[in-house]
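Ticket #4471: structure export looks truncated?
Reporter: QA, pipeline team
Priority: medium

Steps to reproduce: submit the single chain below to the structure queue and open the exported record.
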Amino acid sequence: MAANWIDLLDPGAEELRKHAPSGLEESAVELLLAPPKHEDEPRPTLQSHGHYIFGVFLVAVAVPEEDDVFYQEIDLVITHDTLLTVRKTPPGNRAACDVAIVKQAVKDGDSTGMMVYRLVDEISERYLNLVDALDEEIDELEDKVEDQPASATRARISSLRHDLLHIRRTLAPMRDAVRRVTDDVVDVDEGPEVFPKDVEVAFNAAYDKLMRALDGLELSRDLLSSVRDYSQSKIANDQNEVMKVLTVIASLVLFPTFVVGVYGQNFIHMPELHWHYGYAYSWGIIVGTTLIQLWFFRRKRWI
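Actual output as written to the record:
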């Protein structure tokens, strides 16, 4: 049976009530009208409420040019013959979730459940693309470790870890919500099934993509940990190089300091003090020992 898809963007209370199915609970209306919250809130869900199903989905979007990730919220009210989607514009003048490509994929005669599947499948595909984008960001960061300041690397690693954490906190509930469909846990109480067997089978594809996205996030976290370890290793190596240079300088200065200290003692009977070439002799010792040390350090490849 063909179903009707009603798509609303930032609707007001009057417009929402005009298109909402009868018997929609006031708490659901409040959630549909509530402005989008920060980051990964509210958590994605798909729950049965008697004669309708209420859902919340979040789409994480990466902005590589700004090194940022923001979230697009899309809420659903599903009955056996109507799909109502409420898209919310994210704060910060970000674009709302675009469902045009999903509408183009909808076929004549698609049921409500199949429409929901096509929407969830597109969201799952976007998460796979998001994971690929994050991997590219991590690769780019790794390439910059050698050149950019350590503070910039630490700040970017912290930002990426924050993004990975919140994306995972979004993906896991979405996976669970889709799993509820495949396990035939969520549906309406009256009338035809929203998610018949063929739709549940189709949802397995979306579930598989979400699982692949979660696995990809784990790999991204490992890659980021490798970049962090590499950065710390580079900092340690740089410190070792500095310490090596300082040690060489201290060694070069040590013997001249010793010679000057010896001849700076206030003893009367020091032959070199009354020798005509005593001054040149002391300088010769200082220069000679310095050159010998430089040759030794160079041979050992310490400088």
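Status: closed, not a bug. The export was complete when the record was re-opened. Leaving a note from the reviewer for reference: The CA atoms of residues 98 and 259 lie 80 Å apart.
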